[in-house]
Amino acid sequence: MPADTPDTIERNLGAQPLDAIMNEHELGNHDIVAACQEPLTHKAVQRGRKGRRLTIHMQRRITAALNKAVTLQGKTLEREWKVGGLFTY
Which residues contact 27 (CB under 8 A, 6 or more apart)? Predict the structure, then answer.
């Protein structure tokens, strides 16, 4: 069986760096959803935090929303987070 079949893909990958960053900045799922300019659900953010696989498109949305949510708190970012820094898969 090929390695990329749906039966062999691990779906639950554990807490992601996204979760730690959100906790550090005291951001909830709603803060990310509210900051996103594209459609984004609380469920998608929660799945991303807990390590459930998301599409690269959804990862990019969450990354952009996180960067915006932190700046809306009045904090300045030395550099914006990238998808690779928030998700380990």
Answer: 66, 69, 70, 73
Task: Please tell me the distance from the alpha carbon of residue 26 to that of residue 21, in angstroms, as a whole number.
Answer: 8
Tell me the residue type at 28.
G
CA distance 69 to 62: 10
**Chain centroid offset of residue 52 CA:** 10
- Over residues 31-72, the pLDDT tens digits come to 999 999 999 999 999 999 999 999 999 999 999 999 999 999
The pair of three-digit structure tokens given for residue 37, joined into one six-digit string? 């300019």
What is the residue-averaged pLDDT of the chain?
Answer: 90
